[in-house]
Every structure is written in C-alpha cells, then in structure tokens.
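new request in #modeling-help
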Amino acid sequence: MASTTSDAAVADTKPFDIVATYNELLRSDADLTMPIAAIEALVLLLTQSASSTISETLDLLEKSTAHLKRSIPNPIGLSAGTDLFQRYLITTLQRPGQLGPAGDFKAIRTHLLSNGRLFIRRAKESRDKIAAFGRGFIRDGSTILTNGGSRAVAALLQKAADEEGGPAVRFRVIYVLSSISQDCKQPNEEPEGMETVRALRAKGVPVSTIPESAVAYSLGKADMVIVGAEGVVENGGIVSRMGTYQIGLLAKAIGKPFYVVAESHKFVRLYPLGQYDLPIEQQVLEFKSEEDLEEERKQQSSVTKTDGDTSIKLPLCDSVDFTPPHLISALITDSGVLTPSAVSEELIKIWF
Amino acid sequence: MTEPSNSVPTAQVLTPASSALEQSQPVTENSPQTLPIRDSKPTKPTGDAPASTDGTTDKPLSPAELKKKAKADKAARRIREKLDKEGGTIGSAIPTPGVGAQARSPTTPKKDAAGAGSAQKGPRPLTPRRGSGPLAQTGSVLVEQKKKKDDKKVAVFGHLYGQQRRVTVAGATKEVHHAILALGMQLMDYTICGSSARCVATLIAFKRVIESYTTPMGTSLARHLTTHLSYQITYLSTCRPLSISQGNAIRALKLFIAGIDPSTPETSAKISLCEYIDSFIREKITVADQVIADSAAQKVQDGDVIVTFAGSSIVKQTLLLAHNQGKRFRVSIIDSRPLFEGKSLARDLAKSGLDVQYSLVHAITHAVKDATKVFLGAHGMTSNGGLYSRVGTALVAMSAKERASGVEIPVIVCCETIKFTDRVALDSIVVNEIADANELLPLNTPVSLVVRDPADAYVPPPPENKKGGNRTPVPEPPVTPHKTSSSPLANWRNTPNLQLLNIMYDVTPAEYVDMVITEMGSLPPSAVPIVHRMVTNL
C-alpha cells in the first residue's frame, strides 16, 4: 500500500506538510486518483496530529483542506475527496452511541482512521466494479472512441478485452491523443494514453490513434464514445481533460452515445454554469499582440525563470473543460449506470 | 345583503355570520350542544392531516364515511349559499353549482360596489386592485344576458373558472377570525403578493388566530383546532387560490397540531404552536432566503447583465447582496401587465445604486441580446422540474435559452424548498389561476401616465428599447389622452365573440432551467422531487 511508503517519507519532517504528502502519494502510486490521494493525505494527517477533541480535529481538517486546495492548481478532483471525508467525519461524530459526541475520543479516532483506510481500499476496488458494470456496453464488432489517460476507461477496456482466454469481445478502439498535453512534456515523452494503447494492442485489440482534429472525421466509424472524468459535478456534467467537451458536442451532433466512466468518489459538490464558471484559473485563452509577445520575450531574457506565483495557475497541458449533462448519455459508476440527473440524487444522499 | 356602499366592514361581517347561523340549522346532526362546531363544515381538501375530519360525531364513523359526509355537507352548504344570494336579489333560476359561481357577478352589482368602496379605504399602493371600477360597470349588465356570460370563459381554461374570487368580506362565516378577514382583503387586491409573502402573512395571521383561540368544552385542542383553522383556510382560498407555499405551510402546521399531546394544557400548547410558526417562518423563509441569496450572489460576476422577470423578492435580495459585495453588473428587468411587479423592483434596485433597465415583456428579444444570466423567482417547482411562476416567465427563460447566436445564457431559479410540490405540470393549462379579466382593461394604468405631460414630450417614442440606465419609461405608449373608461374593451362582457383571458401563471419546462438555488444547495431541476421528499419527511 502506498501509505506505508509515504508514512516513512513523512515521519522525518516533523511539521506535517499536507501538500507534499498529497503530491508524494500521487507520484508514488500511479493508480491513485486525486480524491483518494486527498483522503489518504487527510487520514495520514490525523494519524500524525495529536488532536484530542472533536472540534480540534475538525478545525485541523478544515484548515489543512483549505491549505491543500489553495496550493494545488486544479483542486476540483481533490475537493471531492476532502468534502467526502469531512462529511463522513461529521456524520460519524453526530451518530449517537459509543462513537458519538458522548463517547471516548480515543475510540472515535481509531475508528475513524481504520474506517478511512477501509474507504481508501474500497475506492481502489471501485474501478473493477465499474469495469463489471460497463462491460455490457462493449459489444462484439463495436468501435469505441476514447481519449485522455483515464485509468477507469483503461480498466474497462482491458477487462472487456481479456476475459478468460483470448478476447471475449472483439472490438476496436479509436484513441484520441491530445496535442496540448505534448506541449509541456519532455520532447521524448509519449503522449498521455499511449500506455493504454500498448496494453490494448498487446491483448489483440486493434487500436487506431488519431489527433484531436480528426475526431469529427473518425466519429462516423465509431459506435460510441467512452471517456473518463476528473470530477462529476452536481448537475451530472463532467470536468475532464481539455477536448472532452468538443468530443461530446460532436458525438451529440452525429448521434453517437457518449458514456462517462467515473468512480462515485469523484462526485463533487460544484455546479458550474458553463466553461468559464469553473473555480480554477486556466491559461487557455491568452490574447496577445506582437507587442505583448515582444515584452514577454524581454522579460524572459531579463528575469531568469523563478517558480514563484506561477504554481497556482494551471499549466496548459493540465487544463480541463466542462461537458454539460445534456451531452452525456449515461455515467458508468461503481454504484451502477446513472443518468446525469441521478448524480444530484447521489450527492444529496451523501450530503443530507 | 345590499348594504349601502359606505357601511363599515364589521357590518358586512355580521350579516353573513347571522346568515350562517340560519344556514346551519339543517346540518345539526353533529353534537348539538357545542356552538362553534355546529356548522360542521369540512376541512379544505388541501389539508391531509388525520385530525382534519370532524372529531365530534356521536357515533364512530370510518374516515372514508366521514369524508363522504363532509363532502355532502359542503356541497349542500354551497348550494344553499347560492340560493340565498340568487333568491335575495333576483329570486330566479336554481343554479347548478358550476354555473352558480359564474352567475354571481351580474346579480350582485351593488354588493360588489360596496366591497370596492370598503376596499378603497385601506392604504392604496400602486398595485392594481380588483373589483373596484370594472365590476361596478358590470352593474349595467342585464340579468337576461347571463347566457352570454358563459361565452366569456375561454374554453381551454374553462375548468379554472370554477370558483369566482371573493370581492368583499361579505358572506364570511362567523368562525373566520378578523385577522384572516383582513389578510383576505390584502390577498385579493394583491397588496400581499408573491408566494413567500403570502405564506408568511398567512402564518402570522394563523398565529393571531391561535392566540385568540380557546378550545371549546368537550374537545381537545389537537382535534378541534385543525377544524377551526379549516374555516380560515377555506375563507382565504375564496379570496385567492392558495399558493403552493401556503399549502405546504398549512400542511406542516396541521401535522404539528395533530402531533400535540391532547393532555398538554391549552396555554402551553398554544405557546408551542406559536413558537413552531415562528421557527417555521425563520427556517423555511427568512434564513432560507439569506442562504439562497448568498449562494446566488456568488453566481453574479463582474460585467454581468442580469435579466429578471417581474418582481421576485429573493431575486431582489440576491442582486442587492451582490451589489453590496462590490460586484459591478447591470440588471435588466422585464415586466408585464397587469400587475407590473417589476416596477417596485426597478425602483428599489435603482435606489440602491444598481444600473437598471426596465422594459416590458414584448421587448424581450432586445433585453436578451446582451444578457449573460437570467435570474428568476418561483411560485413553485413541480416534481418534473417545471418552474411554475408568474405568466411570462417561460417566455423569458425560453428566449434566453433559444437565442439564435452566441453562447447560451444560464437560467437560474431561486426558490425555497417550501415552494416545492409533488404535483407534476406538463403544461400551464391543467393547473393555473385565472384572475379577473377586467384587470386587462387599461383601467389599471393611472390616468396621469396616459395623459402626456409637456415635460415628457421629448421622450423618444419606443421607450421599451432604451438601453439607458435608471430611467423608468412609460409602461405604455401614450396614445389616447381620453378618459380610460372609453377603452375599446371596456364593454367586453357585452361584446359578442370577445373573450378576455387573464391567466396568472405558466410552466417553464425543466430543460429551460439550468439551476435551482435552494437553501439545501444548488440543484438541477431534476432533483426537485428528491429534495421535496427529503424536506417533507424530516
């Protein structure tokens, strides 16, 4: 488990750094999603801290959550995790009995921590559950268009590809490789999703990789679109890798079903009204004239790069867009296949 | 029944009370010894509390039997009332319940005039009042033309004409508390208008009813008070059909009354009831409004042009809050006849320093052109996500969503969960409210606005399309400086083939609403039934 490695890493730095822990967790375990990493970081925080009262614990939690959200350029994904954990803590503490406000705080704490771990383990298993739910969507002879580096989508496709001895389902995949994400990577690094492409090809699934500009051209050959999501928002829309929205629009225009694969812990209490209503700052649209460019060049030459306030702005390769719910046919989650409008129901269930 | 027009309202209350006594004679099979419950009028059908049926019958009856009996009583009483009225004035034709309501207005012209006279004594706001001028005019209508009257119902909405609204306090039963009588007057002439305001006013009036209530001998408060309140509710619903919020509040109140332990002493029960009402208003409306305004104001951004329709109190609160938070935005108020609810909103916002543009609904395409967001208030939200609100709202929402070019404008509804209902509305025909068609006559427009003032002579002709700031344009192009009574439609009741329709609400389909902001958070319209279930189960 990843927590054991990071436990050791954190132990020597006495003042617990939640941001470093979070980043470390994400780096150490490639299978970890942002909300789970956030929850795990918070559980570690509680293990480290010596809080002895409920309000102290909640206060600590709130402060570190705020700190974490401030320090990460795109806190949408992780806020799903922190909100969920906080909510879980509060409901546990409000429950009557031994673990309620009247009970022994020590017991409450150990219970919380053990349950937090259990939650993390369950969340990791959710991808298999999703794959089981979503398998039925992939039929023999179908062609699936997908994008990005979603691990849930990869798990689903791979599960469909390798059922007991040889590919049970014969399907083809059109993989859209993002051109934006290549911009800020090392020149020799492969684009996001190539790993999945290789894994699928190794399993005998024919995969075609296309650039984003070829989506409209290729959609005619596809039977459905399956994408992953960074966060599922309250109205059932998704926040996802830049380019998902346009695939959704095209799929709607051409009349192909558009499915989203997401773990239910990615449901986030956020209600964007449009692309520009997300609580993050993106550097996608930058209007510049020749004059501005000149100035920029001058500044770059005079001041050598110092990573100061640039950290809070989202780099272009990590930019996201919002796909509104009316473009989404269904969400394949670990609690079943949901329509977009059912997301708010699930969220309300968690929150009230 | 024909009092002089300057009689005091109390005299009008007394007459119906005594007539109610006479009426109650044939229905005395229920407990003859207790006076106030002798007229065993049943509860309104909206009340579904278990204790709503009469608890004082001699022999035990099953709830179904009780209900049936209550229904029969009610029907009988209605027919009697009709008979009294018909008989008292003209003494002709036994009306069937359906026709009777419609036939009432021409037969009681003097009474209507009396009611209008008394109504005018109160403080007169700008809001148009019902029943003052136009009904007096109908006095000239001859009784023989009753046949024609039926043509005046718009066929599609025929089912909504069922019960004509009350225009005076006359005919109220003696059980109706004076606070309720006053509230009824305010409701019927739109002095108290708007779903939340009506709900709060009703609850406050009920508090006064409860304070002055004493349980009669032989019954308990938990069982009798609901019946007593039912008289008040029935009276209020004859003044103006109850709003969804009123219905929900009444339901909650009845449930609370039914849950009171019968052994609780009356004074403490009354205190707990009043406390319940206070906390209900605080939780469901006052605090809810603050929470909604708080989260709705977050959606307002610098440079926004916000379109709103008519005058919603919660939208006003939101916009003022956003303004006080230092956000710089413009507001475009779309208003419509005949209530002109947007006028006071425009005035209040402009007074607070906001940039306001006011136009009527026919200028919607211009207003939507540079809009970035639409904020709407609600009368209710139906279970299929429909927004049930002042007529014209759907037009505004649809114009915003269907704008030919450019990005979609998000349509945001601010609505307390008290306004959610489990009913479903597919169109605005099945459930709606019909107001007096006379309100559509230009009589509502004050003469001073129609007569052109020399100072106003430089006003450009199409005032609606002005994009300019705080100016409140003339609501109608000043055409005829005639006397308003010479409106071409003034005599519409006698004009063949002419029908006037004054509908109050419409339904905006869920797909035209992007977001519903409630005190429970922001929801898509599809989440309305879930939240409603949750709120009512608590």
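bot summary: The first strand of chain A starts at residue 143 and ends at 147.
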